[in-house]
Amino acid sequence: MASNFIPKIMIVESYGSNVKSLSSHLSSFGIPLQVVTADDAPGAMARLQMEPADLVIIDTLLRGKIDGFDLCRNLRSNHFGQNVPIILLLAGTLSLERAKGIVAGADLLLHRPVVKEELLKMLQLLLGRKLEQADNGHAVVAEPIPLRRLRTAV
């Protein structure tokens, strides 16, 4: 039975050229995706509260008072963002940035420049269970997907 499930991906990114690049990468996913955007943290929070997404990609270098790390933390502390998979886009490879992303509650971390194949593999990993449920004719929104959050090694 063919599924009508089209995953909704939110990109939270302040720069239009980066949104275009990410959207172009996402168009290669292999199944249709609904891509919505927000250019800052308050806009993302408001939109996600009104219309949930199946996955959120957040740039850590958002313009405004709230950066991507804080947005990730805020989503994890709200009922509408607790179970949504989050990919944080990091500007560098510094271990401090990685640690901040893990502590903020990201599911996966992706470094810039974004490699299309890495991004698509992350989508497959994070959306895989929802896609399987949809293919099997199950209600996709019936239960949240249990995710393994990244954890720091102490």
Tell me the domain tally. 1
Secondary-structure element order, N to C:
EHEHEHEHEH
- How many helix segments? 5
Mean pLDDT: 86
Question: Biggest β-sheet: count, sense, barrel?
Answer: 5 strands, parallel
| Quaternary structure annotation | single chain
Helix fraction by DSSP (H/I, runs of at least 4): 25-40%
Key terms:
154 residues; alpha/beta; Rossmann fold
Chain-wise SSE layout:
Elements lengths: L7 E5 L3 H11 L7 E5 L2 H10 L4 E5 L8 H9 L9 E5 L4 H10 L3 E4 L4 H20 L19
Parallel strand pairs: 1-2, 1-3, 3-4, 4-5
Helix pairs in contact: 2-3, 3-4
Structure description:
- There is one protein chain.
- With 154 residues, the chain is of the alpha/beta class.
- It has one domain (8-135): Response regulator (Rossmann fold), CATH 3.40.50.2300.
- It has helices spanning 16-26, 41-50, 68-76, 95-104, 116-135; strands at 8-12, 34-38, 55-59, 86-90, 108-111.
- The chain has a 5-stranded parallel β-sheet with strand order 2-1-3-4-5, with helices on both faces.
- Strand 1 (8-12), helix 1 and strand 2 (34-38) form a beta-alpha-beta unit.
- The radius of gyration is 15 Å and the shape is globular.
- It starts with 7 loop residues before the first strand and ends in a 19-residue tail after the last helix.
- 30% of the residues are buried.
